[in-house]
Each structure stands twice: as C-alpha cells, then as structure tokens.
Amino acid sequence: MERSRSTTKIFKNAGIAFVLGASLFGTPSFAQQEGLARETLEQLVSVPPGKLSDSDLALRIQLNRRLLNDNVSEVGGIKLRNLLRADRQEMRKRGKAEDTQQEAAAETPAEEPQAAEEEPAAEQQNDRQRRRAERRAAREQAAQDQAAQDAAAEEERKQQEAAAARAAADKAAAAQAASDKAAADRAAAEQAAAEAEAKRAAEQQQSDQRPRPNRNARQSLQDDRASADLNVAELRDRIADTEEILKNDDIRRALKRSLNDRVKADRAALESKLANRQERRDDRQAERTENRQERRAERREERQAERRAARQDERQENRQDRRADNQVARQLLEDQRPASQLGLPELRDRVQRTRDALQAENMGDNLNQRLLARLSEDRDALRNRVAERKGRSRDRQVREQVLENREARNELLSDQRPSSRLDDSQLDRRIEQTGSLLENGRLRPAVRANLELMLRSDRAEKRERLLQAREDRRRNLRREARQPRDFTIELGQSGIRFNLDIVAAEEDNETIQQQLLAPPRREIRQQYSLNEFRQRPELRDIMPGIELDTIRFGTNEAFIRAEEISNLDAIGEIIEEVVYSQPGEVFLIEGHTDAVGSDAYNYGLSEERALAVKEALLDYFNIPAESLVAIGYGERYLRIPTPLAEQENRRVSVRRITPLLSSN
After folding, report:
1. 121, 123, 124, 127: CA torsion to nearest 10
2. Topology, domain 501-660
3. Helix intervals (H) in 210-252
4. pLDDT, mean of residues 364-386
5. CB atoms < 10 A from the CB of 100, how many?
6. Which of 198, 297, 383, 572 could form a disulfide with 621 if both were Cys (CB 3.0 to 4.6 A apart)?
7. For the residues of 391-418, what is the DSSP string, one character each?
C-alpha cells in the first residue's frame, strides 16, 4: 500500500496522460496516434522501474512496445529497447515476490495482528483482486513479448544462415572461376610453347634445306641468256636474285666476279630498255597532245562560229524586239489625250500599259524618256483622282500650292491657330505645307524657328489623334468580337490569277482589301518555316501584293513622319480586321530601292525602310508583332529595269504569306 501511494503521488500530474494512453489502447486508431503515445511515454520514461506501480509499469511497457513497432528507438535521450528490457525484468520480479507474499500470508496464524484490519474488508478485497488482474495481465504481456522476441530472433537467425549460405556459394563460385582461369592460362601457355617449338623446328628444317652459297651462285650462272634478249621484267628479276646471292660473303671470288659482271651487263641493258620505253612513251604523249590541241582548235572554231551565229541571231532578235518595243512605245505615245479627259479605268489601264512597256530593255533612250515622262504625268493624275475619291488631297498639290502661291504662303505664316483647334484635314494640310516650306523655301531665321515650333506642335497633336484613333478601333474590335461577324478571309482555290502587285495610291480600299486577302497565284505544294522563306525570295511571287509608294522617305532616311501615317490607313485597318478574325495570319513587309548605289547599301536601306513601316503599323494600329515580318530586297526586284534613279523602284510592299508558312 505504501508503494502504491508513493507511486500515485509521483504521477499525480501525469494522471491525464495515463488515462489518455489507456483509452488509446482501447481504440483501433492508436496506430495513427504515435505523437500522443510518445508524449505520454516521455512523462514516464524518467522514473525508475522500481518506483512505478504495477499499472504504470504495464502502461509504460505497452507504450514502449508500440513506439518500437513504429520504428521509434529513443525518447527523451533514453533507448526504448533498454528501457523495455528493464521494465520486463521488474515485472517478472514483482510477479515472483507477490507469489511469495501470498504463501507467507497463508501460513500466518489467525491471531497475528494484520495491517489490513485497519481498512475495511471490502476495500482490501477489491485491492487484492485489482493487483492480481494487473499481475496476470503483466505476465501475459511479458509472455507475448518474449514470444515475439523469440520469433524475431529466429527470423534473424534464419536470415544470417541464408546470408552465410549465399556468401559460401559466392566464395565457391569465385574459387571455381579462379580455378577455371588458372586452367585456361596453363592451356594457353602450353599452346604458346608448342607453337614456339613448331616454329623453331620449321626454321631449322628450312635452314637445313637451304642450298649453300657457292651452289646457288653456280646455278645462277647457268642462266647464260644474253642481257639484250631479256625483257624488262626478266632483267629485274635476274638482277634481284643475283644481288641476293652476292650478299653472302662465303662465295668464292671467281664466282662473285662473274656474278658482278653479269649484274653490270643486266643493269646497262635494263637502263637502255627503260630509256627506249620512256622515249616511246614521250612520243606517244606528244602525239596525243598534238591531237588534243588539234581537236581543241577545231572545237574552238566551231564554238566561235556558233557564237557568231548566236550573236547574229540575237542581234536579229534584238532588232526585232527593239522594233516591236519601239512600236508599242510609239502606239502609247500616239495617244495624246490628256489625263484629265480619260476616265479612271482608262487612265489606270494606260498607266499599267506604260509600265509594261518600260519593262523592255531594247527600247531606244528617247522613247524610254518620253514614256517615263508620260508615266509620271498619268501616275500623278491617277493618284490625285483616287485621293479625291478617298476624301484626301494629294501631297504634291499641297506642296506646290504653298511654294508657288504667295497668298497661301502668307496665310500659313500668319496662321496662329493652336493645333487642337484644327480638324484632321486642316491639321494634315498645315503639316504638309509647313514641312514643304521649311524644306524648300527661303526664310528668315526667326520665321523658320516659328514654323519649326508650329510643325513640332502639329506633329505631336497628329500623333495623339492617331493613338486615340487606335484605341477607339480597339474598343470597336473587342465589341464586335462578341457579336457574329460578316468579315471572313476568302482563301479561294489555287490557280486563280491575280495581279502580282498593285499600287495602293491608285486603287480604292475595296480593291486593296481584295488584293491583300487574295488566294495564292498558283498551287502550293510545300509549306516552309520563316527562315526557309527568308532564304528563298522567289516564294514571294506566289502571293499577290500591294505597293505602298505613298510613303515618302527622305534621302538616306528610314523613318515615317506622323503626317504620313494616314497613307497607311487602308492597309493598317484591313490587317487589324484580319488578325482579330484570324490571329495566326502573317503579313510580309518588303523594302525595295532603285539601282543607284552599291548592292550592300541598297539592301541595308531597303531593310531599314521595311522595318520603319512595320514599326508604324505596330505603333498606330492594333496589330501584334508576330503578325508582321520585315525583309529588305534592295535592288533585286526593279519594276523598271534601269540603272538610273526611278521613283517606281523606290517602294515598300505588303503581302499575306500565311499559306506559305508551316504551323511549327
């Protein structure tokens, strides 16, 4: 009773943990409560086994076993396996002591005083029954633990025996392998020794069969054929055999002298025959060379005759072509009707026929210059009409007006209206007039400074309006994207013929849209990556294009002014619609120059101008960068084949290349 009371005092603060631990053993989810079991055991682990009651000792044994099964080896710095061994020993010791006390109590006389009489009989009886149950449970648990340990030890013993058996088998296999290797080495050594012995025997036999030097010399001298009667191969063989015999120093002097004389005669005869053979070979070579030269001379004469005939035919064809080209040019020049008297279709047709006629290379210089002048007049008239139909004025007219009309010039110099008060047409007109006057007019420094300030302000206002227009179109495109759209890209069927290129300044917006969305001009048999497309410029001819010669670049300039962005409206807005409808579409922007300047310079300049158009489309229109590709072609594709500076050759083109590109 005193031990039970002391134990109860020690674990007064651990009562809740004990009850919780005991309840956990009664639930099937204890395997998931390792943390709680560990916490309970940490409260009991520091108490020596002798100071624990039977129930606390049994609880610590059970908690200890549970944590060991969960691979927990240490709690609070104490090895759980050692603690379990000490607790089991204490439990067995208490079981033996209890049995001894029961036997002593049975032999004690009834008259001896009993300490238990101080307590009620019922309480003593319940206490004894509880202790017996605890001891019985502890003994059963100890027996189970011992059985488990025995099974584990047996399993470990079997594993050790299996490991020992495997090690023995490996050792035996290694020994067998070593034995086999030693046997193989011995067999190889014996084979090598046998081969060496056989080789020595063969050499000895060959040495025994070898004739003596003097005998060989006499046998060689029996060949008494004259050197002149032998051919080159026979002489070489006899000289080689004789020299081999002479290497032996045991030959008699007379035999050696005879052999040397014959060798000298054979060598002289061999040199004579080789010289004769070389002479014959040189004669044959000279004859072949002479024959080749004669044949070459004949072929050269034939080719020259063919070239003379071809040049004659070419001159004849050129004369015919020149007459035909000149005839076409004269027919065009006979049409003396002013451009103002022609309808728009007729004027457009005459401009195109003039361009086609200028493609001829055999035309006379006089006719060529007259056609260029006619083309310039008709082209300006055509573009003026198209611009008027689009509600715009031609830049050239605006420039000439301010330079030639003094009233218009004075009106511009006195125009003090702020940029924000002008409408779009007034702003474009003032920007164009101001730029032309600054570029070509003679102005005082103060007047020039005022005009430059006004031009910067107008261009800034123009840029802001263009950016605002881009935002308005973006909102409209997003709003229209939520509704059914009538706009589609007509891919068409391959083989439909379209014009290779049209000029944007000479066509209305509907024609520009049809040309930009036209199908391929011929069947596409293969698709290409973008790098492959760059390396094969001839692929551009498959898709129709639009030439943007309304953008004016200054000399050696590669940037676009804000007032010229309106010339890109038709192209930019169509591409906006296309990429919103079909996000994967790709458009090519090509840069071209005339033939003035070096190839490298023109190539770089054309690429810079193509990039300038691309940047303008990206800045002022709702077009993603991946939908535009800029490439410069320099002077490779001239519209009019002339080495002179020609406006028709200075251009930027746009074409849709999506059908040519692979999806990867």
Report:
1. 160
2. 60s Ribosomal Protein L30; Chain: A; (3.30.1330)
3. 213-221, 232-246
4. 83
5. 9
6. 572
7. T---HHHHHHHHHH-HHHHHHHHT----
Q: Any residues with CB less than 8 A from the CB of 397 and at least 6 apart, and which? A: 384
Distance between CA atoms of residues 660 and 527, nearest Å: 5
| Amino acid present at 181 | K
CA–CA gap between residue 338 and residue 626 (Å, rounded): 46
Q: Which amino acid is at 182?
A: A
Q: Write out the two tokens for 299.
A: 């072929």
Strand partners, 584: none
Contact 655, 544 (CB under 8 A): yes
Please give the Cα distance from 592 to 634 (Å, whole number): 5
Task: Look at residue 335 and give its three-state secondary structure.
Answer: coil
Q: What are phi and psi of 489, to 5 degrees?
A: -95, 120
50 alpha carbon, distance to own chain's centre: 76
> Using 50, 70 and 90 to split pLDDT, how confident is the model at 461?
very high
CB-CB contact of 430 with 415 (8 Å): yes
Q: Give tens-digit pLDDT for 493-545.
A: 443 444 567 888 788 888 888 888 888 888 888 899 989 988 898 888 889 99
Residue of 558, 537, 555, 553 whose CA lies nearest to 605 = 558
Tokens of 364: 């006379």
556 — alpha (psi -120 to 50), left (phi > 0) or beta? left
- What number of CA atoms fall less than 13 Å from residue 291's CA on the CB side? 6
Provide the token pair at 632: 């410069």
Q: What is the DSSP-derived secondary structure letter of residue 629?
A: E
The residues spanned by each domain of the chain are 2-104+126-151, 235-245+253-298, 340-481, 501-660
Q: Is 654 helix (H, G, I), strand (E, B) or coil?
A: strand
Spatial distance between the Cα atoms of 190 and 326, rounded to a whole number of angstroms:
103
Kindly report the pTM of this predicted structure.
0.50
Closest CA to 382 of 349, 407, 424: 349
SS3 183: helix
